[in-house]
Amino acid sequence: MDIQQFNRGLLSFIDASPTPFHAVSTMVATLTKAGFVRLREGDSWDLVAGERYYLCRNDSSIIAFVCGKQSILDHGVRMVGAHTDSPCLRVKPNPDMLEKGYLQLGVEIYGGALLNPWFDRDLSLAGRVSLTNDKGELISVMIDFENPIAVIPSLAIHLDREANTNRTVNKQTDMPPMLAIVDGDELNFNDIVIAQIERQHSDVSVSKILDWELSFYDTQPSAMTGLRQQFVSAARLDNLLSCYTGLQALLQADGEMTSILVCNDHEEVGSSSAAGAQGPMLKHLLQRMCQTTEDFARVIERSMMISADNAHAIHPNFIAKHDGNHGPQINQGPVIKINANQRYATNSETAALYRYLSDQVDVPVQSFVVRSDMGCGSTIGPITATELGVRTIDIGVPTFAMHSIRELAGSEDAFGLHKVCWQFYNTSDLPWC
Question: EC number(s) in its UniProt entry (predicted)?
Fold first, then answer.
């Protein structure tokens, strides 16, 4: 796979994945085509060396792995972690709002969204709906309206003269998207959802909508941008970029070492859920790979996790927001993320191994440390390290406009990260084995 093919695949993956449910579904289709076998957590397993498997939880988290030919007791496992969720607007349970003849929907803000860029965008809606069908069965289906069905119009500057100097956004009153003008008819969101299900799933006859997890998203397609096509411009780069990168590396793993890709939901809201990184999904898998508690401890000691989540590139208009010696640049390589207070899980040992792997595949490396007078975000890295006790490094592709409705990364960096993850999966011995 060359870099152009890789980037085309990345754009297609993001456009096909407007929600975590769709991201997992897209990954499942790719894995199935590549010969991976689905496992269900409630079944008994008989794992075979050399075979490839995957499992899902909540339809929004996925673990795919290659059951290596080499003993995990001797060589440990290679793990890459990412997350499927991104900040967005989630539809409330009772969302219908009617103001001056306009049908609007009440929304919750999911995660730490940058809200101003959501205004004046062509929005669509996607996610999961639970229902009973005409047979009385309880089922869930995914829907995606695909076409622009909503917008959040800005207030004209004539009515807000301080919009360019002192604009704030009220999450409750300013963010409800507008869907339609309803002139006396009885249009409501429940009926809109039923109609969409029946359009998209001709074999489903809806008796009653029971619940939904539906998110608005920008319909503008992902693109390669810039005068020299040096940028990847897309929604949800944080962190579908890392999901796709890890997936492509795993698909190309040689199968000698046991290699795992875990993509959890709910990172943007703290990871504290059954499907999040603080849940037991990954730990349960590793325990089932080991016959005893002692085996589990031995495997963890010989293993490592690469936590892949986007990093903050130094913005040329806001240079002072970065430490002078630690401002990652676009297309200068993936970034090792470091924090003395353990907001990132990197230590000198794991950073050294990552630099070593990067040298093997000729990929440049950068470092990020937040300014000492600013707060620091976090990732699934410290959570996974705490839950498992596994050596972990936090890395990521440098990105602009993180948590905006549209983010910007470099056209070279994700492919570089893919090469390092591939090298990691195919390295026979880690220094501590």
Answer: 3.4.11.-
* Type of residue at 417: L
The model scores a pTM over 0.90 = yes
Distance CA 184, CA 161 (A): 34
**Of the candidates 217, 215, 293, the residue with the CA atom closest to the CA atom of residue 14:** 217
Architecture in CATH for domain 3-86+235-425: 3-Layer(aba) Sandwich (3.40)
Residues 6+ apart with CB under 8 A from 137: none
HEC sequence for the chain: CCHHHHHHHHHHHHHCCCCHHHHHHHHHHHHHHCCCEECCCCCCCCCCCCCEEEEEECCCEEEEEECCCCCHHHHCEEEEEEECCCCEEEEEEEEEEEECCEEEEEEEEECCCCCHHHCCCCEEEEEEEEEEECCCCEEEEEEECCCCCEECCCCCHHHCCCCCCCCCCCCCCCCCCEEEECCCCCCCHHHHHHHHHHHHCCCCCEEEEEEEEEEEEECCCCEEECCCCCEEEECCHHHHHHHHHHHHHHHCCCCCCEEEEEEECCHHHCCCCCCCCCCCHHHHHHHHHCCCHHHHHHHHHCCEEEEECCEECCCCCCHHHCCCCCCCCCCCCCEEECCCCCCCCCCHHHHHHHHHHHHHCCCCCEEECCCCCCCCCCCHHHHHHHHHCCEEEEEECEEECCCCCCEEEECCHHHHHHHHHHHHHCCCCCCCC
Q: CATH fold of 88-218, please?
A: Aminopeptidase i, Domain 2 (2.30.250)
- Summarised one tens digit per residue, pLDDT across range 55-106 is 999 999 999 999 999 999 999 999 999 999 999 999 999 999 998 999 999 9
Confirm if 209 and 382 have CB atoms less than 8 A apart.
no
Token pair of 169 as six digits: 């956004």
Rounded-to-integer distance, Cα 164 and Cα 162, Å: 6
Within 8 A by CB and 6+ apart from 210, the residues are 130, 131, 132, 138
Q: Provide the residue ranges of all domains of the chain, joining segments of one domain with +.
A: 3-86+235-425, 88-218
